[in-house]
Amino acid sequence: MRLAGLYMLAALFVLLGLIFPDSYYVTVVGVTVCTNAVLAISLNLLMGYAGQISLGHAAFFGLGAYASAILTTRYGLNPWLAMLAGLGISGTVAFVLARPILKLKGHYLAMATLGMGIIIHIFFVQADWLTGGPDGLSGIPEISIAGWPINTDLRWYWVFGTLMLFSTWVSLNIVDSRPGRALAAVHGSEVAAQMTGVDTASVKAQIFVVSALLASVAGSLFAHQQAFVSPESFSFFFSIELVTMVVLGGLASTFGALFGAVLLSILPEFLLVFEDFEVLIYGAILMIIMIFLPDGLFVSGSRFVTQLLRKRDAGR
Amino acid sequence: MIDQLFQFLISGITVGSVYALVGLGFTIIYNASDVVNFAQGEFVMIGAMSAIFLYGAGVPYVLALVAAVLITMVVGMLLEKLAIEPAKNASVVTTIIITIGASIFLRGAALLIWGKDIYGLPPFTKDVPISIGNATLLPQNLYVMGGTALSVLLVRYFFDRTMTGKAILACSCNRKAAALVGINVNRMLLIAYGVSALLGAVAGILVTPITYTSYDSGVMLGLKGFCAAILGGMGSSMGAVAGGLLLGVIESLGAGIISSGYKDAIAFIVILGVLFFKPGGLLGQADSERV
Amino acid sequence: MQGGDNMALLTVTGLEKRFGGVTAIAGLDFQVEPEIVFAIIGPNGAGKTTLFNLLTSIYEPTAGTVTFDGHELTRLKPYQIARLGVTRTFQNLQVFLNMTVIENVMVGCHLRSRCGIVEAALRLPSVLREEKKVREMAMEALEFCGLEDIANRDASSLPYGMLKKLEVARALAAKPRMLLMDEPAAGLNDTETMVMSNLIRDIRGSGITVLLVEHNMGLVMEVSDRVLVLNYGELLSQGTPQEVQCDPRVIAAYLGE
User: Fold this and answer.
1) What is the dihedral of CA C228, C233, C235, C236, to 10 degrees?
2) For residue C49, which residues of chain B lie inside 8 Å, CB to CB?
3) Which CATH class for the A4-265 domain?
């Protein structure tokens, strides 16, 4: 069944929330995991399926967050309208930049997306009349869904989890459809994709916008959940972290991206033990996995398990 | 006004020289192994920090500088041996992540060893300002420019006139053919990374007396060095040098005339412009795919 | 000799391509009638693949025009040319190795389906209907090429000969009017070549015009209705296979006088 994985994930998510509603690890870390998962899944559509490396994904997360923060605190706009505005802004930036950036390949594309992310981040830091500068904006109001105020960790867990499940569903849907195949075709051989009638520039631009929109929603919710935004959360380093999640799990795999997000969200909790060694170990892990398991942990792992099962069946 | 512009020019060429050396190091590695080394900036940082600490530990000044450069060269070669060589058939995305991982690793090591503080190095000679009109120049500025020029010339000589240099160029043109004529490709790559790291370290010790350094000062330098290489045309070593100098001057003028807060953004705006309109850069060529 | 009664499907006039100082294609004029197999042969480096790349807008011509079914092709992008009903296979395989066999062919059906990204993301009922239809169309193309048994295999696990057939199936899935085949028999053994030869005849039989670049003379002579010989980017000779075979200029070019 196509959505079996999604159903299992949903069941796990609901169970954890019902059984451990007061646990820090479930609610608070869970929210971080879900946020990162949405970002990783959206990035994976662009990087994994369409094969377009992006080192600036955090920028769209930030645009959504700052749009919500600024419009609700400085202009008193309704949070949901602010989120919509954030979607408009992220979508427009992505739309405008998509074609010139996605014409590039390989290192040039990496550099362009990097540049885009850094410029937007510098704007967050410098435009303090709007964004509050390096100290950020605080006092972001809480949101309610149909009168139900989202003001506890558990409620945020449900909200972010729903977004995460929705993103997973959307990703699985796209992959198994005409536009998804067109994307994979662009990744497989751009010239052959063109000859089957795929407007490759348009398809790449579309997925760039879709991934930006998903990141923007996550950003808006993030702003309300933290009640505070600062440029630090949307830097080039976070973009690299997101790329790491996608790549660690395995490109072109929705659940791989999820796996990578879970792993890297939980890892800092473990690395805290190592204190000063944290950065060093993070870098080492990245290198080792990319050198020895370039297909990513999740994809390599599933392949290994499938092969084991096949051998067992053959042996009977 | 002219004096102000001249002052910006001086600081621009100074910082541009660092970009030039970083960009040149980038290009050497790119040409030799087709890898974009995101850890390039860390060589600058390691060279500077090593020099500072050796000198602080009592090692005589000049010896500290030389030792720092050698240490960085070793780091560069270790990077090649341990991270690049095992992954030589990896895809573009994978190698990008590997070098990013390496840069994080090196930064983590620096953090561990040297902490978060900012450090400086005493200048080569006494800091007696030289006046040109209403602008001032420090002797160290001249050392940076001179040192860079000398390094570039030596590198040029190395690649144009020595067998080793030419062998490295052969590897970058066609690795299989180079191996077939008896060139030890792995050793050549090792040397290429060593030379590249050397250039980074030289940049570090030249400029730290002016700009100071800390464990994460390599990040932006590496990125801007990459910008310099793209600006000049990916793969062109003289282009990277020209690109670096140009970038430094544009940045300095922009920071001085428009706004200093957005200084870092300038380099990336320039590079986006280049990538959008002339990805081949000033001296390079556009890529094409053979079908 | 040109078919005066039949409206030519493809007309090439004054086509020229220069790469810097090298003239790859020089002032080429020819016409292709519908529903035939039209072969383009010539010694290595004669410009055959360059010609294909010009016809499909992968290269831009330095001069000249290409008209297909009344449409001027030189200004169009490759995907727009595909929309007019022209597909191709590639000399150095461009199979989507990151997908299964049937997925490759389903991409070939791209122009015969319509689902966009929003409908796909939300899995609207129209998507489900279309997926079923596309799968059927893809299976049809696979059956035509004899590949139906391996539909769910990873393309990356296939041997070379099957990959060549897969490219053909993918190109056919679009139900094109004209199919450009770039060295379909390259690297195939005798049995595989015979199968390919029959496949090309079947394709013509289904009403598709085939433009064929090929080195295998046996295949060319067996299967083609008309042959054009290129030498150094210029048209050396044109006619039926028999006429071209006996043309002394062609013999000289191949044997090198």
Assistant:
1) -90
2) 291
3) mainly alpha
